[in-house]
Amino acid sequence: MRLEPLRRKHIPRCVALEKLLFPGDSPWSAHAFHAELDAGAHYVAAVTEDDVLAGYAGLAIMGPPADPETSLHTIGVDPEFQGAGVGTALLRAVLRRADELGAPVFLEVRTDNERAIGLYERHGFQRLGLRRRYYQPSGADAYTMKRPPVRVAEAGEATA
């Protein structure tokens, strides 16, 4: 498995995975992925040795360069590859980008997605609040979570 920038050629597979992973919550369209890439979001793909997209993650970067903020917009892993560390690798890759910027990271996650919540908490995220009926059309609630900014020192070490 290798990580690489998400490319437009990956988008049809992302859309197929969205439909598989998020069937009741308005899976992202090809247009949504194209718009994210056009807006300069930081997207990472996990690709197998056979060039199959196993997962993806995207980080939106907002605000002025002197005071940036980021938001984890999406992360998805093909069920065939879940539990093999792909999601962790993708999350760490986008968090590295946030760390390079010294930016906090925000996200929303379904309150019933205990696996994802655990992953986020292990990586320094804390729950900030609850967004009722956030996911549509299912009406599922979401936690808003935040990871504080981490600055990367010149020696390559992260500091809070």
From TrEMBL:
One of its GO terms (molecular function) is N-acetyltransferase activity. Signal peptide: none annotated. Residues 1-150 form the N-acetyltransferase domain. Keywords: Acyltransferase, Transferase. SUPFAM superfamilies: Acyl-CoA N-acyltransferases (Nat). It holds the Pfam family Acetyltransf_1. It comes from the Bacteria. This is Ribosomal-protein-alanine N-acetyltransferase. It comes from Amycolatopsis marina.
